[in-house]
Specification:
This is Aromatic ring-hydroxylating dioxygenase subunit alpha. By secondary structure, the protein is an alpha+beta fold. The protein has helices at 150-157, 163-166, 202-207, 274-292, 316-330, and strands spanning 14-18, 27-31, 34-40, 46-50, 64-66, 69-71, 78-79, 85-87, 104-110, 113-117, 137-146, 183-187, 190-200, 216-226, 230-236, 242-251, 257-265. The longest helix has 19 residues, at 274-292.
Length: 337
């Protein structure tokens, strides 16, 4: 699937930038192949619009702010969060004509990030477990570009058969390649997959992120998929520790995404420093990307064939593909390769 060619995917919210990055002025970003500009309005709420002035097509992200509006660096035209031109200094008109406008986008702040939808959203922003629970802390981990399609990473997140091979140096067991049973419960905009995974604790021995000494353990894992490219994996260890990973892949173009990842944990900084938690997940992400960035971005699971023994009809990746294809069909689209 070429992610920028499916119009309905523009109708979802994606995290594009930490809200803190906008404190010193407007910033550019590319989402779904579109160049946009982000800024904070008069109420310090994030705003997003096309990064091109309607006058002489200059990049607005090179400009500055005036009364919560983005000001073009070329001729000083100003635009509000709705895209309306509020002032242009070459005219004495107090209210510029309505045709003087740029494309504004849906923009919200949540979980410390700016979220943008390029078209009218068809679903709300995801609600993450533990985000409002005072017994959990939030650790921001990664904000970086990856050379991998969003769907490819989502499929990988629910493909437990890869664990014992890709992650054999951290927590996988290559001598026990049979994947665990997965129980799936679907909903309107995704699904929940439950599994119990026996793992080595080799990675924990290196970075001490789990605050436990056992060589092996069983991870009880509830992974939630939020259509199209967001997942939350909630891992419960026998000690009662919950390590809940939120991973978002925001499409930049057809070959790259912005990876946004943060974690919720029911422990304390003095027991396990955030640096250890980040190092723990850094190893896992690096192992995944070493493989995923070698794959072809426009090739997804073939739901018509059982190419692998683990690709059964109830495999999460198969259900993911079926739900996305149903969404495309509902909106009169076909999958573009």
């Amino acid at each position: 699937m070429l992610q920028t060619k499916q119009k309905v995917l523009r109708s979802f919210y994606y995290p594009v930038m930490p809200i803190a990055d906008l404190q010193d002025g407007p910033k550019p970003f590319k989402i779904m192949g579109e160049n946009i500009v982000l800024w904070l309005d008069e109420e310090q709420k994030p705003a997003a619009a096309i990064d091109r002035c309607c006058h002489r097509t200059a990049k607005l992200s090179k400009g500055e702010l005036r009364n919560g509006c983005i000001v073009c660096p070329y001729h000083g035209w100003s635009f509000n969060r709705d895209g309306k031109c509020t002032w242009f200094p070459q005219s004495e008109l107090e209210d510029p004509p309505k045709v003087y406008k740029i494309q504004g986008y849906h923009c919200e702040e949540r979980y410390g990030y700016v979220w943008v939808a390029l078209a009218a959203p068809i679903t709300e922003l995801p609600k993450f477990r533990y985000s409002d629970n005072p017994e959990f802390r939030k650790v921001d981990e990664f904000y970086e570009v990856i050379h991998c399609a969003g769907l490819r990473l989502m499929e990988n997140s629910f493909d437990v058969a890869h664990v014992n091979f890709v992650h054999k140096n951290t927590f996988g067991d290559v001598d026990n390649p049979k994947p665990p049973k997965v129980t799936i419960t679907s909903n309107d905009w995704g699904f929940e997959a439950y599994m119990e995974i026996p793992v080595h604790n080799k990675l924990n021995q290196e970075v001490k992120a789990l605050n436990m000494d056992a060589d092996r353990t069983v991870r009880k894992q509830v992974s939630e998929w939020f259509m199209p490219f967001i997942r939350q994996t909630n891992i419960t260890y026998p000690t009662g520790l919950i390590h809940s990973i939120v991973t978002c892949t925001t499409p930049i173009d057809d070959d790259t995404c912005q990876l946004v990842q943060f974690v919720y944990r029911n422990d304390r900084e003095e027991d396990v420093p955030a640096t250890s938690i980040i190092a723990f997940d850094r190893k896992v992400v690096d192992e995944d990307m070493e493989v995923l960035e070698t794959t072809e971005t426009n090739v997804s699971l073939d739901i018509t064939k059982k190419l692998e023994n683990h690709m059964l009809s109830d495999h999460p990746g198969i259900l993911m593909r079926k739900m996305l294809l149903a969404l495309l069909e509902k909106h009169g689209e076909q999958e573009v390769y």
